[in-house]
């Protein structure tokens, strides 16, 4: 089977899940899958995907995996005790044929605490099932050559001594085997340039640093869980700070767009959080605006970290590193371009939270194609509340 461990997911799922256990244990949510790549036929593989998801739902954490989680400084013992009893509830996930030819529908509904771990392995399953059926000759040698060329852009340039890159590609990987080869090759050949991986299983197995803090779903859910919509972003950041007390201090900036983020990210948050993560829109403009915002809020940008993770390639990451060198700390998370670059077009698939406690939630991205909400009236209201321009 494709997924053989519940650790085969991204770290930020566990860091968010711990917040859910301690602050929102009763929250009910709904996630919905979407394929943004046109003309992809997945319906022929629906039974295969169902079998993989069934196997996923039989998994439990091993004692070795629980001990590893317990060793992470920010993971608390009661959360690990909870995970010792955990499995993914199969009754909460529905897979069916979509309305359009070739499409499939995947919906997850249930308690947030018990469904939060579905997203990453389900997307990895869909990807691997598709590619192992559609690409009988993967082109491993071409993939290895591409990986070598990317790494050499960094390792052969003495001006990039401080360059750090992490692997963030679990959900859109070509296959589990290729994913592991990418991580082990980067660890072996990039040395200190390799910051780590978002994948907890590979981090444990290969003794590299697991990386991640919060994802979009956390700030989205707070639209329904906070005191009022306008304060939901502030509420999310304050609850996070309460849980982690200064640890895991990278804030996600693009759930409402950069304008709204900067309005809420006041001097208190500038000083409290270690930095912010970019995930949509122009990364150069985003970085310049954030550095100016730090300066305006009496915070030395050189003490802060800007994390770039939006559809990055190595050349773009290097360009960003040069732009911001000496002005702040920078780090890069590269996903699809590392784990699914063998000469085949990657699938643009996502699984996003669309409801929490029965009410719609939304992400309003600086990249319009990344906006996701199933309620146009709510989306229009959210744009008004956060002083965002109307939908294009």
UniProtKB/TrEMBL annotation:
Gene3D superfamilies: nicotinate phosphoribosyltransferase. Pathway: Cofactor biosynthesis; NAD(+) biosynthesis; nicotinate D-ribonucleotide from nicotinate: step 1/1. It holds the Pfam family NAPRTase_N. Transiently phosphorylated on a His residue during the reaction cycle. Phosphorylation strongly increases the affinity for substrates and increases the rate of nicotinate D-ribonucleotide production. Dephosphorylation regenerates the low-affinity form of the enzyme, leading to product release. GO terms for cellular component: cytosol. It is an enzyme of class 6 (ligase). It comes from the Bacteria. Residues 163-389 form the Nicotinate/nicotinamide phosphoribosyltransferase domain. The modification Phosphohistidine is found at residue 216. GO terms for biological process: NAD+ biosynthetic process via the salvage pathway. Residues 7-127 form the Nicotinate phosphoribosyltransferase N-terminal domain. GO terms for molecular function: glycosyltransferase activity; nicotinate phosphoribosyltransferase activity. It catalyses: 5-phospho-alpha-D-ribose 1-diphosphate + nicotinate + ATP + H2O = nicotinate beta-D-ribonucleotide + ADP + phosphate + diphosphate. NCBIfam families: NAPRTase, PRK05321.1. HAMAP family: NAPRTase. Catalyzes the synthesis of beta-nicotinate D-ribonucleotide from nicotinate and 5-phospho-D-ribose 1-phosphate at the expense of ATP. Belongs to the NAPRTase family. This is Nicotinate phosphoribosyltransferase. It comes from Pusillimonas noertemannii. The gene is pncB.
């Amino acid at each position: 089977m494709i997924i053989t461990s519940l650790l085969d997911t991204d770290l930020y799922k566990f860091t968010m899940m711990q917040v859910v256990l301690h602050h929102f244990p009763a929250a009910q949510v709904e996630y919905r899958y979407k394929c943004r790549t046109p003309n992809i036929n997945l319906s022929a593989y629906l039974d295969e995907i169902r079998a993989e998801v069934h196997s996923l739902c039989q998994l439990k954490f091993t004692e070795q995996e629980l001990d590893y989680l317990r060793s992470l400084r920010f993971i608390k013992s009661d959360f690990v005790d909870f995970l010792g009893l955990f499995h993914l509830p199969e009754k909460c996930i529905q897979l069916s044929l979509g309305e359009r030819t070739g499409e499939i529908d995947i919906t997850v509904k249930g308690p947030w605490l018990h469904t939060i771990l579905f997203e990453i392995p389900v997307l990895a399953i869909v990807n691997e099932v598709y590619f192992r059926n559609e690409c009988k000759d993967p082109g491993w040698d071409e993939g290895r050559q591409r990986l070598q060329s990317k790494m050499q852009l960094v390792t052969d340039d003495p001006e990039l001594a401080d360059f750090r890159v992490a692997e963030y590609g679990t959900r859109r990987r070509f296959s589990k085997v290729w994913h592991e080869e990418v991580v082990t090759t980067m660890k072996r050949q990039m040395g200190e340039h390799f910051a780590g991986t978002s994948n907890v299983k590979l981090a444990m197995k290969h003794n590299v640093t697991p990386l991640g803090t919060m994802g979009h779903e956390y700030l989205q859910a707070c639209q329904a869980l906070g005191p009022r919509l306008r304060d939901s972003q502030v509420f999310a950041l304050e609850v996070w700070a309460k849980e982690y007390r200064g640890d895991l201090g990278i804030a996600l900036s693009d759930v409402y767009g950069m304008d709204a983020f900067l309005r809420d990210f006041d001097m208190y948050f500038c000083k409290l959080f270690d930095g912010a993560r970019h995930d949509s829109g122009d990364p150069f403009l985003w970085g310049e605006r954030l550095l100016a915002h730090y300066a305006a809020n009496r915070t030395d940008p050189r003490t802060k970290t800007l994390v770039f993770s939006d559809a990055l390639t190595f050349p773009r990451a290097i360009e960003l590193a040069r732009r911001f060198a000496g002005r702040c700390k920078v780090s890069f998370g590269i996903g699809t371009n590392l784990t699914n670059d063998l000469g085949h077009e990657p699938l643009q698939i996502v699984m996003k939270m669309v409801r929490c406690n029965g009410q719609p939630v939304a992400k309003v991205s600086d990249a319009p194609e990344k906006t996701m909400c199933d309620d146009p009236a709510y989306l229009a209201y959210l744009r008004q509340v956060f002083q965002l321009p109307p939908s294009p």
